[in-house]
Amino acid sequence: MDLYEHEARALFEEHGIAVPRAEVTDSPQEARAIARRLGGSVVVKAQVKTGGRGKAGGVRLATDPVAAERTARRILGMNIKGHTVGEVMLAQPVDIESEFYVAYVLDRAAGHFLAIASAEGGMDIEEVAAVRPEAVARIPVDPAEGVTSAKAAEIAGAAGLPPQTADVLVRLWEVLVRQDALLVEVNPLVRTREGHLLALDGKVTLDDNARFRQARRGAESIAHDDPLEAAAAAKGLNYVKLDGEVGVIGNGAGLVMSTLDVVAGCGARPANFLDIGGGASARVMADGLTVILSDPAVKSVFVNVFGGITACDAVADGIVRALDEVRLTKPLVVRLDGNNAARGRAVLDRRAHPLVQQATTMDGAARRAAELAHTS
Predict the structure, then answer these.
(1) Which residues on adjacent β-strands are paired with residue 114?
(2) Rounded Cα gap, residues 45 and 285, in angstroms
(3) Is 101 part of the annotated catalytic residue set?
(4) 188 cis-preceded (ω within 30 degrees of 0)
(5) Catalytic residue of the set 4, 101, 104, 239
(6) Of 87, 185, 229, 245, which is the active-site residue?
(7) What number of CA atoms fall less than 13 Å from residue 295's CA on the CB side?
(8) How far are the Cα atoms of 170, 183, 315 from residue 150, in angstroms, in the given order?
(9) Residue 197 confidence (pLDDT)
(10) Residue 317: which residues within 8 A CB-CB, separation 6 or more?
(11) Are strands 88-91 and 42-46 parallel, antiparallel or unpaired?
């Protein structure tokens, strides 16, 4: 589960990482009052669970309380990469001398965590990493040993960070471990002209599998900026909104991730994806397809199912049920393979919906879904 920026910075503060004073609101009028409490000039920041807020106009400086209200009114309700802004955070501006980047992320393939750090933090860190990878240090962290002061000094030294950032690196590791996080990131970590280190922005992704250990992260704490994400969650579905044009449904995280890659390889972009999991029933398939088809950005849908525990004929029954419940206006490409695939294909053949096409291979189905998305 991704946290909002204001939730991430609250965790940083709990673990002794300094942050600028800030407050959150969903009201332009309250934004004016907050700005007054914070000293007048504030940075107004959209609270959405996606990157690129600054470039989208979701982060703006307001020089006085009146401007803060006007700016909050402008940002609230914005759509940033498919996420509607429901709240803004107003923070005290900071006199920045230097910006750094520090993060820990789980490296599943390697079986350890990875410390990523750079002396060139800020909005363009992705470009720095792509153009000059030598400017970004990547240091493996043994989960059993963690980040001690010595390890933190090693990370800071490798990235060219000031020695005093070692303390922040230790505390950020504490956030990751104590909150059962998969990712903790501070970007930028800034040094002010007075020499103080402050976490100006941050991201935290919690491990949903560890929610039972995090009592305060119960179901009531889950918030969704996208109404379709909320609708999917209410049905117990794992749905993620993206910014492309091909809706993707698959069974199992690995297959779904592979499907996204194949769609991208065919020159299209996934608009969203939904994992119906193993052993999905017809009802689950119908619910999932209903959610995917409700996304106006979707131009075509790719259903990619490899039946193991999941029976392909149950998936096909679910598609037919969804077609009876929802007026299909977008082409649907279905690839069924594995358990009861022949029966599933026969179910769809009998239904013979004019907008439903079948493909026998994953690559062929992705290619067709991409073509249909570009011509719809």
Answers:
(1) 105, 140
(2) 38
(3) yes
(4) yes
(5) 101
(6) 185
(7) 32
(8) 10, 21, 53
(9) 95
(10) 282, 285, 347
(11) antiparallel
How many Cα atoms occupy the beta-carbon half-sphere of 12 within 13 Å?
A: 31
Q: Tokens 């996208």 map to which residue?
A: 226
Q: Where are the alpha helices (DSSP H) in the chain?
A: 5-14, 28-37, 65-75, 125-131, 149-159, 165-178, 227-234, 253-265, 282-293, 312-325, 341-351, 362-375
Q: How far is CA 96 from CA 35, 54, 168, 222, in A?
A: 20, 17, 17, 34
Which pLDDT score is estimated for 218? Answer: 53
Reading across the β-sheet that carries 270-275, which strands appear in turn? Answer: 238-241, 270-275, 246-250, 300-307, 332-338, 356-358
Least Cα distance to 188 among 339, 54, 357 occurs for 54
Find where tokens 């849908």 sit.
Answer: 301
pTM: 0.63
pLDDT at 279: 58
58 within 8 A of 75, measured Cβ to Cβ: yes
Rounded distance between C-alpha atoms, residue 292 and residue 312, angstroms: 19
Kindly state the tokens that stand for 105: 């992320």
- Predicted local confidence at residue 321, as pLDDT: 85
Neighbours of 362 (CB within 10 A): 19
Which residues of the chain register pLDDT less than 70?
Answer: 123, 212, 214-226, 278-282
